[in-house]
Amino acid sequence: MTVQIVAATAHNSTGLNIALQKLESALRELGLSSTRKSSATASELHEAIKGNLSENEMIIIADQALLDQCKLAPASHQLAPESFEIRKGGSSINAQVLVLSLDERGAIYGVLELAERVKAAKSLVNIEPCLIHARFPFRALKFNLPWSSYRKNECFELQHNCVKDLSFWEQFLNMMLENRYNTLTLWNLHPFPFMVRTQNFPLATPFSDAELSEWKHYWTELFRMAKERGIETYLINWNIIVSEAFAEHYDQHAIHDQYYHYGDSYSTNQIKQYTKESIIQLIEEYPDLTGFGVSLGERMNDMTPEAIQQWIEDVYFEGMKAASRPIKFIHRAPFTVDPAITRASIEQNHAALEPVWLEVKFNWSHAYSSPQLLLTHGGSKGMEAYWNPMPTNYKITWMVRNEDFFTLRWAQPDFIRDHIRMNGQEYVGGYYVGSECFIPGIDYSHIPDSPHIHWDYAFQKNWLYYMLWGRLLHNPDTSDDVFVQQLNERLHISKGDKLLTAYSKACKMPMALASFYHFSWDFTLYAEGFLATDESEYNKGKAFISLEDLLESRPFNPTYLSIKQYVDKLVREEAMDGFITPLELASELETDGQDALTIVVELLNNDPRLDCELSDIIAWSQLSLYFAKKLRAAVSLECYRRTGNKADQQAAIYWLEPPHAAAHWERLVAVTKLHYRVQPLMHLGKTLFSWELFLPQVYEDIEYVRGQIV
């Protein structure tokens, strides 16, 4: 039996071809062949929509004019950009299917959805119709580039060749398309010398003409490939930083990207002219680049909010206005909060800037803490004035930064759903997902040449992470069944539901730690390593969260009681109503960790692919159990300090020694050594990371408690 696929679109794009290939593959799994017809007239489509489709025919419409001519039923008039309807008709034996959308992105997503539904239904007759709207118009991945990079570490140096390889980007962009991301944001300190040679400052670009030509080919192809897949591209840089070559040839006092990025400003009319010229040429020479953005703060410490905004207007806004085509804009919320100044600037210039996405870091650098907005960049207060009153010329876009787990796979769909439900107000345009300290290129963490490895790049190893965020940002009502189906298909198993449950339980650990242990910027927490550091400890490897650290910390989430607060209430016999106590958190961690381990035992089947996934779940579970036992030990020690009861001091040691906390860390070391090697980690500077590195400090906690005996 042959299915005819009719694609009625403005043009036959790469993105739609990828989606149609997925659909054709799904049909082949049902034993059906397929043929394609590239277009159809309005009259043909009108007949089809009235119910006169040929048997076993599928029609994909991605053109608003055609939809209007076809006089669709009311349901399809509800379609918005990037939304789609799958409509079904036909007899009990044969089926006809329509995928209706207003635009090409909607058609791509609709065809991808149809392919999934064909696989799930295992027949055309049983396909479930649907009407799915895009929840957010902005669904972005944050990608830090390894050159002129904001952070500097071996883990970035390792990625240069990979990120410069267009074959990497082809696969990365395909992943984005399949997961419904529509925006790629590329971040580095100073991108211009890698992209343009300005007329008045030619020596600011250090490359020969041939070298610059190679770079221009790279960027042109990257932006083209993204556009063909319905993905917008933005470049985001950091304000008053210039190239090293500019400083050498034009201004030796200028701040270039070899210096530390954080500090006071240095600006001249020449620097303004160079940056403005670079912006104009960037827009002119790369027509497929969608937008531009700027980060305010790092090299503006000594400037007033008014001066910061004026600099952006004079350089960035004026440069964008002077270009021959409009370009979209990402405006990071300034670190020094004065929303009235930024709002007024955007409103006064909105005609040249629309649309504007105002980026705000959600819970600073550690969004995997709480779905409740408790903190923004810089720990600043008053940030809510960016959205209250409701903005009319921009939308808030939440930056979901992950600086907490780079090696272990993470999957917790309910956390994402809660996040979207709590933070999807009318003034919100969408989300960015990504990291400042990790590039998902080559996977340098896993032991090479292992039978576990069935991926080329780190983002492919973490495919479920990207799928969860992308699919749920497009449609938060996406069922877990979709993810279960993918787990079954990719890992050749039949118990994907069990595996997703195990992930969901074990992967609560980083949010639990970040809710309980206070943090701020990037390196102040790394949940999968049970690490926290600051400037004084950077490059020393002294980052392990000791028992003493846990005792002294205050919770990030105010609904949690610190250990000292809890014991104080306990001694005073005060009610704990409305608070989560350390022992309640410990009990939850223990339940989730043990439940996940029980499921792992049920799923073990000696398949290396599945074994690698299960090992990560075991690792998260051991971290959960270690954290739980350490909380119990800390409570016991604080009780001993308050009451002098030697039984409490002995209890603290009991919870830290094997078979409790120390044993869990030893099991964590054992399971991770089977898969992972020592690796560079931005949080530790030059010290290579492994879980084994911190085993001595696990035992130092025991000696610390023993030393508390009075």
UniProtKB/TrEMBL annotation:
It comes from Paenibacillus septentrionalis. This is Alpha glucuronidase N-terminal domain-containing protein. Keywords: Hydrolase. Gene3D superfamilies: Chitobiase/beta-hexosaminidase domain 2-like (3.30.379.10).
